[in-house]
Fold this sequence. Notes:
The complex is a heterodimer.
Chain A: E1 10-14, H1 19-29, E2 33-38, H2 56-61, H3 64-67, H4 83-86, E3 92-96, H5 102-113, E4 117-120, H6 126-130, H7 134-140, E5 145-148, H8 165-171, H9 174-177, H10 193-216, E6 220-223, H11 226-230, H12 235-244, E7 262-266, E8 280-284, H13 288-297, H14 312-317, H15 319-330, H16 335-344, E9 348-351, H17 362-366, E10 371-375, E11 379-383, E12 389-390, H18 408-415, H19 420-428
Parallel strand pairs in A: 1-2, 1-4, 2-3, 4-5, 5-6
Antiparallel strand pairs in A: 7-8, 8-9, 10-11
Chain B: E1 8-12, H1 17-27, E2 31-36, H2 60-66, E3 70-73, H3 79-90, E4 94-97, H4 103-106, H5 111-117, E5 123-127, H6 142-148, H7 169-192, E6 197-201, H8 202-207, H9 213-223, E7 239-244, E8 247-252, H10 258-265, H11 274-277, H12 285-300, H13 304-313, E9 317-320, H14 324-328, H15 331-335, E10 339-344, E11 348-353, E12 358-359, H16 377-383, H17 388-394
Helix pairs in contact in B: 1-7, 3-17
Amino acid sequence: MNPKPLEGVRVIDLCVVWAGPFATMLMGDLGAEIIKPENPFVFQPMTRGAMARPPQMLVSASIAWAGGLPNNEVGARPWDYNPTFVSLYRNKKSFTVDLRRPEGLEVLKRLVAESDVVYENNATGTMEGLGITYDWLKEANPKIIFVRVPAYGSDGPYARARALGVHLEAVMGHSLLRGYPDADPSSNTAIYSGDYLAGAQGAFAVMTALWHRDRTGEGQLIEIAQAENAACMFTQAIMDYSLNGNVQGAIANRDVNGRAPFGVYPTLSPGTPATSDDRWIAIGIEDDAQWQAFGAAIGHPDWADETRFATNAGRLEHHDELDQLITGYTATQDDYELMHSLQAVGVSATPVLEASRMFTDPQLREREFFKTQTQRASGTFEYVGPLWQFGETPVEFSQPPVMFGEHNDYVYREILKLSDAEYETLKAGGHIADEYDASVP
Amino acid sequence: MQALDNVRILDLTHHIAGPYATKLFADFGADVIKIEKPGGDVARSLGPFQGGAADPERSGTFFYLNCNKRSVVLDLKSAEGRAALGELAKTADVVVESFAPGTLDALGIGYEYFKAMKPGLPVVSISNFGQNGPYRDYKLTDLTLYAFAGEMYSMGETDREPIKMAGTAALFESGAAAAVGIMGALFSSKRHGIGQHVDVSLAETHFGGVDRRHATAIAFQFSGRKTIRVASHGGGMPQGIYPCADGYVDFTNAGLRPDRVAEMLNHADWLNDERYSDPVQRMNPAVIEEWNGNFIGWCIERTKREIWTEARRAKVMCGPMFTMEDLFTDEAFRNRGFWSKVEHPALGEVTVPGRPFQMQNGGWEMRRAAPLLGQHTAEVLSEVGLSPAAISAASGGVA
């Protein structure tokens, strides 16, 4: 079998939440060995769930993506199967160590000597508090690549600000740009798209630094200020201010480039939003020819042939009215059938796909996108697949979502080559465990 | 030196996602040869335009995406244009393209062509739904991409239509994912001697991506539960977006740290109230509503920057909702060197966001502004030995 692109690269994953783990997941998909040190005495919120041992009520009351555990039960090892965790921890290994104690730090240092990359995205100051700095890492391995992902960078007045993706997107302008134009911004849903950007670019940054190290032999420190990193997503708004001093506002589903109509319209639905059974179709008409094709595809209703809608300028001027007319048509249509009939004439239209429906989508099935994984703690399920298809080095999910401490033997005995006596001492000290200490809520 | 200054990318991408992927390489030193058709990349027709009027050399979107690249006009429908492409391919480390699937094969310049031209040359193809399957020829815009493959369904108010992210954020996310795929192709080639075709489906970069879709999908598999669409205001203590004296602030009480929130509010006494400190009582809607009533009163007396200062002091997760004016005038971002300025023949001095991340060695540089259409046609094609006549023929007579 061909070696994977990053085969032979070892990454220590000191990450939390999403932005860091997404980066290391991408590297793991490309064949790097990702090793996550975890502390049996410290639970990192929003990484393996909200709490190590959440009350059933908390799980049941949480939105599905945060609380949808197997069979809706907390079970014996909730930290192993939180939805936000499992989807980011394939192709990774986990071992346990308490980094707050000197012998724990020594373990990490020995692992750093055998590794290429250390990646962390903790709140600023967390690593320093443990004594983990770039200088300390370099003592163990002069060629180490150390990636840090502070929210706003390591200097300046915001350096110690606590933030998730949703907060830095507020600062970068996204939250005021993505709502309904006629609604109070507080109607926004919390989203975390900045974690996507920082994660993908974090993987890119590591590979750039590895490329540099291959050429020069030098390791280095990389800083991804996550807010700055997210800026690219709002290019149109940033450049409009830069070039014209224009402050853009929220336009919901309308097109930032002024093409019309662009919108999301109701279709036949098996139920209501209360049970996530409402259905919608997104349609974007990019030019006059597409508008003609759209009119033909939906059977030439009188309004579609009106001359005032023949040009983009006309459609833009009457966008609200067009939305009503289009809704009158789509409301009686099946979303998938309408996609197929509009796409057949070259119009970009897709259902607004509620997540459960992706598993029956013919395109994803034809491309064998999903991967079945079996984890001992939770069972066998289908997971979403990789971000790219490589012809000669296909992405494989060779390690299912990693259980807490699953690779203690591998890391301590095979990589660090601890004697039985050393292993037993660390185990007696609580460093080596396969679950969180009973004191951790 | 820059880390990637020994990499040459033959860039056959256009619009937003592909050019964003190759921009990242250009920013870290790669020689990105941007092939444009005689009329230019369609992104040149995308606003915002300086002054408002459409002009292919005044598009802010094109400018941001194409700094540090060189522009070469080739007419790939002509034999001369394809011959020039072949010469460029011989000098490239990777080819990246974003044509509709089948387009390059029909012109005789698909993966097999590049493989023949330079054995082991990787080719990365970026398309809407991938190179095969029933939707292979379907169209996507940023709107439909996020609707279908991203987590649009659960974004917005319960009783209204789902809504998208701003601008073309979903396409930028896909571009960043594609850049990692291109890197994978380069590492396979340089470290392991494996050339290959990489198929990047924009849809799959979202179906497989982060920001809730990864979790909504497996949550359904696990539990049969679906993620409802719901605004996030007022659902915790604090949780979501609150009005303040001059705008809005966004809060999350992650980690259930009522102590930090009390510290921020200078209300240590609230910790003595079981309703505010007990994890289960804190989920009671009546308690939440009462607490939020008090909290909004605190917010409304302060500006967003004042509130953020208090939140930072107490380590509470908070983000003031900035406008672009707030961001451009923010001293902390400016002092950190976030902004970059570069001179452009048509636009004058332009301010753009600079480095996506900072490297100690071999990192980001702004080497040149976005190219004028065909600015480097003669320069690049003469580097690979084409005569002036051949250059003119290859570019459809525009060079």
